[in-house]
Amino acid sequence: MAGEKRNLLVIGKAKKPRCFKNVKTLPVDYEANKKAWTPSEIFEKVLRKWDSQLRGNKKNIILFVDNCPTHPQIQNLTNIKLAFLAPNTTSVIQPIDQGIIKTKSQPKAGEK
Description:
0% of the residues are buried. By secondary structure, the chain is α/β, with parallel strands linked by helices. It has a two-stranded parallel ribbon. The protein has a two-stranded parallel ribbon with strand order 3-4. It folds into two domains: 28 residues, no CATH class; 60 residues, no CATH class. This is (apollo) hypothetical protein. One of its GO terms (cellular component) is nucleus. One of its GO terms (molecular function) is DNA binding.
């Protein structure tokens, strides 16, 4: 894929983890949630921030999103178009669910 890389979003349980005590900057974006899940509030907050950045850079994107209930339709995004996958297709479409990532297997008899 071509394009720009975004910072990884890490969602943890603690608002201010002790391990970040003397950390001035992180190479990731960090959010907190009691169960370390992505609730719709965090999803919307992240997308609105990204939409604002795209508006400033005069860029438009389409973002393919699975139909998880915490991924709601978000109104008034100007530079991000959300395209939701059809129900029950995530496991068919997403490469990681198709077994693309595997552990290295042992060679068969006679192979090196």
